[in-house]
Amino acid sequence: MRRIWNSSAVLLLTFSIGLMSLVAAAAHEVRPAYLELREEMPNEFSVLLKTPMRGDARPALAAVFSGKVENITPTVSRPTGDAMVQTWRMRTIEPLTGQKVLIDGLRSTMTDALVRVEFADGGAWVARLTPGAPEATIPVAPTRGMVAAAYLKLGIEHILLGFDHLLFVLSLLIITKGSWRLVKTVTAFTVAHSITLALATLGFVHVPSPPVEAVIALSIAFVAVEIVHVRQGRRSLSARAPWLVAFAFGLLHGFGFAGSLSAIGLPAGRIPLALLFFNVGVEIGQLLFVGAVLALVAIIRSAKRPLPTWLELVPPYAIGTIAMFWVIERVAAF
Prior knowledge:
9 helices; 334 residues; 3-stranded antiparallel sheet; Immunoglobulin-like; elongated; alpha+beta
């Protein structure tokens, strides 16, 4: 049993250090750019382009359309602290549907760009552009299937790029012993964040985003401390009933998911569909992560090589260090 725990600790240490490296390598551009077009009059759109900033540095991005369009107002730029927001109005000489939209300059960055187009008839289209695929075609009439597929993909991408959510799930995996307990813990986290995601997205509850993000980071640090207590032989509620901790903090993480979904926006007339598939995407991404961790644990256990027992404390300390860095960073940004 000791060998198994040592091997598992090494695996979880690898994941912790890997996530730390990813955060360090991509922290300055992990936030996506955002392009929004709202049709306020026939063929006239208000346009908002939000580009992430770090200090005074920001990528040079611009929205380009394949058809004929003309700007009818000057571009107004204003910094918001962590982004540069540009707004203007444009008129489409040719129908916007069927045109390709390109985020010029995206290929030379490490960030993605969310694009949302909302039409006067209530229809909407959402897409995520990447450095490898910086353009997409605006469909003539987004179908239910297209909306479902778009928000499913956004949900998967959000959780897999959400380092804080992944570190919390990783912490739960470390502190939870036994297959049945693990199923209950993961299910509790899923149910909890689904509840608050729906309530916040539908407007029944509103919680400011900055405090939520700070407390999410604090929740990771809390579980990391609990892991250390367990390693030292102290039995706490988190170890005896990790599903209760997962449910309590899952409610908080749901508000974090809702903040991201609010930034993307929901298509008028398709809100329940988009919300459902975004949440399903989050769950798929979460299960992919859990499955990857468990698969690698099984591989390392099969080796049965004895390792130093002190390695058991390295993963929680690594996770706790990252979490407290986020706490300080997010509180300072209030």
